[in-house]
Amino acid sequence: MAIARAIVTGPAVLMADEPTGNLDTARSHEIMELLVDLNNRHGITIVMVTHEPDMAAYAKRMVHFLDGLVESDKRNGSPT
Q: What pLDDT score was predicted for residue 2?
C-alpha cells in the first residue's frame, strides 16, 4: 500500500527504506520487480536502503556505507 500511495502523484524519485524487510522471499522479489518496472517503464528514480544483498542485486548502482562514510560506489548489473 505504501508504494501505491507513493507513486499516485507521479514522483520523479521514490525513497524506499527496507521495502522488503518484513516480507517472505517470493513477495520480496515481486516488490523488487515492481520497483525495477517503475524505474524502467516510468523513469522513476528509486533510492533504496537495504541490508539484504539479494535485494541490492536488483539495483543499477550500489553505494555502500561504512561508519557513515561512502566505502564504495559502483555500477551494478540487474537480474531482471
A: 83
Alpha-carbon torsion (2, 15, 9, 37), positive or negative: negative
pLDDT means per 10 residues, the chain with 80 residues, are: 87 95 95 95 95 94 95 79
pLDDT at 1: 80
Structure-block grid coordinates of residue 70: 561512502
DSSP 70: E
- Asked if residues 45 and 26 have their Cβ atoms less than 8 Å apart, the reply is no
Pairing of strands 69-75, 13-17: unpaired
CA atoms of 43 and 12, how far apart (whole Å): 7
The domains found in the chain, sorted by start residue, are 2-75 (3.40.50.300)
pTM of the full structure: 0.84
